[in-house]
C-alpha cells in the first residue's frame, strides 16, 4: 500500500518542481558550507552548515529576510555576550544566573520575534562558552564570522541556483485570502438567514481564514524582502494585509451580531436583508475574480448603493410604525448588522484600490 509520503515524493520528484529545486539548492549550499569549514579549518565548523540550513527558504525573499534577521541577531547577541564576559573578568559565578536569564528570554521570544530570539540565543551560547573556557569571548567573534559566511553562502545560492521569487505569488495569495474570506462570509450569511448559530462549521471556517491570513502575511513579507519591488509597492502590500485583517475582524464581529439575534431575521425585513447579503456576496465574488484575472472581470458591484437602498427601505418601514413593537435590543442588533456589512464593503473597496495600485506599480 502506497503511503502519502511516497505519493508526495513521486509527485515532487521532477526538476521543475519548486520543492525539488529547493531541496537541491539547500543540499548544494550545505555541502558548500561543509567544504568551506574544512578548507578554512574552522574550529567550530558545524556553525557554518547550521546557519545555511536555518536561513534557507523556498523563496529568495524568505532566505533574504531570515538571513538578515539571523545575522543581525547574532551580531547583537554576540556583542552583548562578549561585553559581559570582558566586563565581568574572573567573576564567573555571576554567569550562571545570566545564562538562565538568557535561556528564559530565548524560549519566551521564540514565538514573538526571530531577531530577538537569535539575540537571546547567541548571548546564552557566548556566556556558556565563557563559563567553560578561559578565553570563551573569542568564540563570540568566531560565531559572528561563521554566521556571516553561512548567511553569505545561503543567500548566494538562493540568488544563483533557480531562484524562486516570492513576489510572483502575490496574486495567488491575494486570491486565496479573498476566497477564504468570501467562504466565511457566505457561511455566516447562511447561518443568519436560517436562524442557526452553531459553532460546528463556523469555528473551522474561522480557523481556515486565520491560517490563510498567516500564510498570506508570510508570503507578503518575503516578497517585500526581495529586490524588484518599489517602496510604494511594499507599502501597498502592508496596507493590503492590514485590510484583509480588518475584514477578518469584522467577520468575527458579524458572527457576534448573528449569535445575539437569537433566531431568524425579522420577517418584515428578511427579504431586504437577504438581498443585501446577496449583493455583498457578489462583491466578494467579484473581488476574488479581480484578484485572479482582472482582465475577465465585468463592472464592479456598487455595494454603497445596495447599503443606501437598504437604509431607505428601513426608514420607510420605520415611518409607518413597522418596528414599533420590536424590542430595542433587536433593533440595535439590526443596526449593528448593517454597520458591519457596510464597513466590510468599504474595506473591500480599499482592497480593490490596493490591488490596483500594486499592479500599476509592477507594470511601471
UniProtKB/TrEMBL annotation:
The coiled-coil regions, if any, are none
The name this protein goes by in its record: Predicted membrane protein
Pfam families linked: FUSC_2
Looking at the UniProt entry, the stretches that span the membrane are 71-88, 94-112, 117-137, 143-162
Give every Integral membrane bound transporter domain span.
32-155
An example GO CC term for this entry is: plasma membrane
What's the superkingdom here?
Bacteria
Q: Which family does it belong to?
A: Belongs to the YccS/YhfK family.
Q: Where in the cell is it found?
A: Cell membrane
The family database entries (PANTHER family) matched by this protein are listed as:
MULTIDRUG RESISTANCE PROTEIN MDTO, P-HYDROXYBENZOIC ACID EFFLUX PUMP SUBUNIT-RELATED
Species in which this protein is naturally found = Desulfobacula toluolica (strain DSM 7467 / Tol2)
Q: What is its main location?
A: membrane
Keywords, comma-separated and alphabetical: Cell membrane, Membrane, Transmembrane, Transmembrane helix
Membrane topology category: Multi-pass membrane protein
